[in-house]
Amino acid sequence: MDDLVADLQMLIRQPSVSAKNEGIEECAKLVQKLLKKSGAKSEILRLRKGVAPIVYGEIKSKQNPEKTLMFYNHYDVQPAEPFDLWDDPPFSGVKKGNKIFGRGASDDKGELITRIKAVEAYLKTTGDVPCNIKFVIEGEEETGSEHIEDYLKKYKKKFSCDGVIWEFGYVDAKNRPIVGLGMKGLLFVELSVQESVRDAHSSLAVLIKNPAWRLIEAINTLRNSDGKILIKDWYKEVSSLSKNDLGIIQKEPFDENVFKKEFGIKSFVGNKKGLEAKKALVGDATCNIAGFVSGYTGDGAKTVLPGNALVKIDFRLIPKMDPKKQVSRLKKHLKSKGFSDIRIKVFHGEAAARTKSSHPFVSQVKAAADKSFGKSILNVSNAGTGPMHPFVEILKAPCISIGSTYMFSRIHSPNEFARIDLLKKTTKCMCMIMDNFGKN
Amino acid sequence: MDDLVADLQMLIRQPSVSAKNEGIEECAKLVQKLLKKSGAKSEILRLRKGVAPIVYGEIKSKQNPEKTLMFYNHYDVQPAEPFDLWDDPPFSGVKKGNKIFGRGASDDKGELITRIKAVEAYLKTTGDVPCNIKFVIEGEEETGSEHIEDYLKKYKKKFSCDGVIWEFGYVDAKNRPIVGLGMKGLLFVELSVQESVRDAHSSLAVLIKNPAWRLIEAINTLRNSDGKILIKDWYKEVSSLSKNDLGIIQKEPFDENVFKKEFGIKSFVGNKKGLEAKKALVGDATCNIAGFVSGYTGDGAKTVLPGNALVKIDFRLIPKMDPKKQVSRLKKHLKSKGFSDIRIKVFHGEAAARTKSSHPFVSQVKAAADKSFGKSILNVSNAGTGPMHPFVEILKAPCISIGSTYMFSRIHSPNEFARIDLLKKTTKCMCMIMDNFGKN
User: Fold this and answer.
1) Chain A residues close to B207, C-beta within 8 Å
2) Which of A27, A120, B256, B280 is 20–30 Å from A174 (CA)?
3) What is the DSSP letter of A259?
4) Average pLDDT of chain A?
């Protein structure tokens, strides 16, 4: 574990913010070094210039060369802003008791290190692995995995496998790991308006239109206060949750009070409670304002009429929502409501994906999780997004998420951390998954 | 004029951003130095610690010690942000042909220098001034002149006068100065919402409320898209424009096309045209978004659910709107619409003021303006705000704005400039005002 902690700290100390193209190449090289240290063959794969490379690793099994397990992870991290809310510098990787702090400590450098160390432990103690292992470690996950589909197509043969262990897995407040069978999709857009060619004195607001008002009027038509999206046909292709899925959701524990306390909130969107809240996590689409900026945002008063306004919106998509179709529905909506002056920039779209709970890979992973953590929980779909759809589509392999990310570990927020006890249990769990998978 | 230009450049090069308390004391000292250089007695007046000082100047007239003219100006400037839109550094004071660029070049350091140089010219050429002169130069105008009322009360005797020349005066696209008889009031507020105690991963938007959505829903009830304010009783005490006022407005030239071209816009708020547009500038109240910020506003995508959202709103007030009353109406409105969770911070409120067009001071100033510029235009009220109300109330003196500020000189915006030809004409105009005022 000392070695794991030290290597994780080293990884955190190498910033790798894909949104800003900060430290990406350096971090890829560091990951390759760690793969080689574990005993894997490793190479840096490239699509073309300007695209973050994939770090690829491979170990052929002597005892079982017929079955291949893939570990999919990412070495990039979210931006660390707002810096002033961090207790320690975001890339310090400081260890305090059972926790290691830093941007990426959990998401995804902590997860990645458990996979690498599991393989390393197997190779060092037995000289072999129970099945072939492939590492696919990308560098654009936090900006939406824009090129993973192209990579999967280009390296389809190299990446062929029989099962994929996803880049993360949540552990709940009672230390139970979630065995996740799906991910939501994502559509990230920027809407903007320009009225005047520049900022003006706000006294002119009697005549010059305010772009912030315009944008607010426009986006206020997108959803109601309960979170329902009001864009025409947004939910058209969506099926309601199956009986099987509902059964799994009903069994899932969810402590509303712990969750509310953690975020300091009193009620949920649309005043959801109990099963409704659990169903929302698995199956609700969202229209979330990730950022809004216009005019003067510093301290004090400035009587300015801004020239432009911009909002960043992320829509979480559920199965059967096609990102491209949803973009055209959004455009049609704004036009039909009289807002054809609103400019739309699409950052990326990604469809949702789910693996069927009846697949044998599910029980192999669940058994390993139960054994290493005590008890695990089955989950139909994570509330978050990952590029699971192209893996399922192109590699035709089942994908399951299981890992070490404590659900209140503040991923994407200041003071993100990883718990050392969970890193240890997850490393053990990864060994058992290889074992169960290789021998069945 | 060389001396005037050099002194103005020196003033611009001393930043004095009241919103950030940057360079205030230093600029006050510099202004005092310039007053002394002109031949005035000068002192720095203070209210208490933490309040920007007033630079006071005085010259007693030998030929006419019975009448006193006050020049009211300010030495503070607006913040220079966004810095990257300036062609030259905002505090460089660079001269290019007929223009001097920099934050404060027109508003208000350009205006101030014309008053000082007019007095200096009179004293140097005749050894006297045609009436007593008082300079009241404050340092908090751009943050709303929060303490000018207290200063006027404290120094009521020292400041007593028979007429006030206001801190600015616009010059239109055809080089005609505006003789302004009034100012609108201002109410600057910050509305904010906190939902979660911190930013969260945006996948949790299915359950955690988004403060940006909440704030948008709330403020979208404040006005309609034509700019009409929907807060109950907002216009209750307001009278419509008098026949006299309407007559003056009708005579006012206003070139819609030049205005629209300057700002790159095609139509006005509420599609106003002709007389309606002119009436709006004089007499419409506004609810303007001066700034809105929430979540991630940097480059690229970040899937974050913000913990809080904040909007800065400035309401322009028209005569008989009491700022305190309007604040309580705003609070009542939000409460009645179900938004009692929205926090309100009031930065300041200031009532509107107007001087009657029949006052003899008006014709004295207008005659001086006609003579020095060729032709001037009478204006019932400026669209902007200044603390004219306490001057009229406490000093019982008529206030008139006349000056050198070209109406497209980008005050409060990047690349603010002053035109040297107008600085020259205004200096001459100030001499003539002293003359007309002293001899009548």
Assistant:
1) 259, 268-269, 272, 277, 280-281
2) A120
3) H
4) 95
